[in-house]
Amino acid sequence: MEGGSGSSSPCPLDKEFSDQIAVLLSPPSPESIKDYYDELMKTRKCNNLKINFSNSSGKAVYAIKEFEEGELVLKDQILVAAQHISNKVDCLVCSYCFRFIGSIELQIGRKLYLQELGLSANKECKESLSRFPEKACTRVLDDIKKHSVSNGSHGIGSSTYTNSKDNSIPTEVLQSLINGNMSLPYTNLFALPSIFYCPGGCKEEHYCSKLCTDLDWESFHSLLCTGRNTEPSKRDAILKFIEHSNGTNDIFILAAKVISYTILKFRKLKRLRFKENEKRAKLDETDFPLLLEAWKPVSMGFKKRWWDCIALPDDVDSSDEASFRMQLRDLAFTSLQLLKEAIFEDECAPLFSLEIYGHIIGMFELNNLDLVVASPVEDYFIHIDDLPSPEKVEAEKLTRPLLESLGDEYSVCCQGTGFYPLQSCMNHSCCPNAKAFKRDEDKDGQAIIIAARPIVEGEEITISYIDEDLPYDERQTLLADYGFRCMCPRCLEEMPGM
Ligand SMILES: C[S@@+](CC[C@H](N)C(=O)[O-])C[C@H]1O[C@@H](n2cnc3c(N)ncnc32)[C@H](O)[C@@H]1O
Questions:
Q1: How many CB atoms lie within 10 A of CB 455?
Q2: 125 pLDDT tier (thresholds 50, 70, 90)
Q3: What string of DSSP letters covers 428-492?
Q4: Is the CB of 367 under 6 A from ligand 1?
């Protein structure tokens, strides 16, 4: 099997499992696409849309009712998503649904504490923060909790708090905010879900509920947990994989989640099959169909190899294109080797081929939507600012120093990237009739698509993959990265020579 970009693959599994890999990567038939999405629509009670398949533009989403401008078209649950590593310093969110958790006080105190650490820490600490921010962030929280002063009497109005020249807040005040020993005014109006901890004891992942904790554990995290319950050699291997991803491209974390998801689903299907037919001692001959079944949600996503489909960056000369793509492939191979050390499973060996890994990452490249969740901290400070005068003056005695210390960063939202099974079926148009848009009530990472103008029954739902205000040539250049030339009504009208 070719490794893409014209040279043979460095991964022996590509050759060993070439037949199974070809089956895993073959485009699903129109019938299986229909069955899969009909079922998905049914379970998600999504009665207003349908997915059709055509040879010209693949899957496409159609309205089966009229939508008014601004009406919700689709709320789509995440198949797999991750918060950007750098964003973990700014926002503490549920690792499964990406809702903000804890309290306003914790969000503010934690962020300022980490900011302070990043600014004033010694070199070693700064390096560990940039190389491994996830770990550093959670360790820090843990340390604060262990060493906190338990009487809770930290006067927020003390001179050290208000007179600080460089806007920094004393550590004991931050500890009190983090530990819940200090309350800010009006935060009861912005209550956040309490924190649930990882059952594997890793302190890296936090949740908003028992349900999210269990779903993440069952779907992804039980294979990727670095907690005390994981065997030490495995834990070291997982940590090495994460460290490499954090230092290179956090899209590898998402790919690892897809592989974990497929393995865990495969195991579940196998357990069910054993129960159904307990007399059978061995299941070998039926294992691959089970792997195919487990892989089905991923098989539906539009895919190309990552190093073949990624756009050539502006600073890479076209004469260096082949070597650029080869470097990407080698980077993916290094990441895959580390992941293999951590979670390889014999029965799911084809999933650890470079061919599959490259296609999973390529699927994100062509389909992913930015994951964005607005910060409740921003809403909180806006609320304080909107208070009538006496209440505002009183509240700001406590909140203003915090706001000043946070600076422009006070309103950073949760940011990441996610693959959404239904939204990812939406094709592009430069005059789209729908758009991704979070409303005030959307507090988690689900994809929200609303009508950008009235949509009639039977119309295809389209969104824009790019900034549609750009001129024709620039739009076409950007869309070439997605592998197509746009022929929407606007492009046909603006096409030179038409
Ligand atoms: C997010 S997917 C959209 C769903 C896709 N049609 C499918 O079958 O899965 C993006 C891919 O769909 C195709 N696509 C999207 N919009 C298109 C358009 N206006 N014309 C042609 N192909 C399009 C391109 O191949 C693009 O890389």
A1: 23
A2: very low
A3: E-SS-SEEE---TT--SS-EEEEESS-B-TTPEEEE-SS-TTS-HHHHHHHHHTTT-----HHHH
A4: yes
Q: How far apart are CA 487 and CA 493, in angstroms?
A: 9
What ligand 1 atom has the least distance to the C-alpha of 59? 8
pLDDT band at 220 (very low <50, low <70, confident <90, very high): very high
Tell me, what DSSP letter sits at residue 276? H
How far is Cα 267 from Cα 343, in angstroms, rounded to an integer?
14
Structure tokens of 16?
């060993």
End-to-end Cα, the chain, rounded Å: 44
Residues 154-196: pLDDT tens digits? 223 333 343 344 668 888 999 999 999 999 999 999 999 999 9
Decide whether any atom of ligand 1 lies within 6 Å of the 464 Cβ.
no
> Ligand 1 centroid vs 11 CA: distance in angstroms?
30
Residue nearest atom 9 in ligand 1 by C-alpha distance? 302
57 lines ligand 1 (CB under 6 A): yes
Question: Can you spell out the DSSP letters for 58-107?
Answer: EEEEEESS-B-TT-EEEEE--SEEEE-GGGGGT--B-TTT--B-S-HHHH
Q: How much distance in Å is there from the Cα of 57 to the middle of ligand 1? A: 6
| Ligand 1 pocket, residue 58 CB under 6 Å | yes
pTM: 0.88
Kindly write down the DSSP assignment for every residue of 328-368, as one continuous string.
HHHHHHHHHHHHHHHH--GGGGGGGSHHHHHHHHHHHHHH-
**Distance from C-alpha of 56 to C-alpha of 165, rounded to nearest angstrom:** 63
Distance 483 CA to ligand 1 centre (A): 8
CA of 198 to the centre of ligand 1 (A): 38
In this structure, the residue with its CA closest to atom 21 of ligand 1 is 57
Cα–Cα distance between 309 and 70 in angstroms, integer?
34
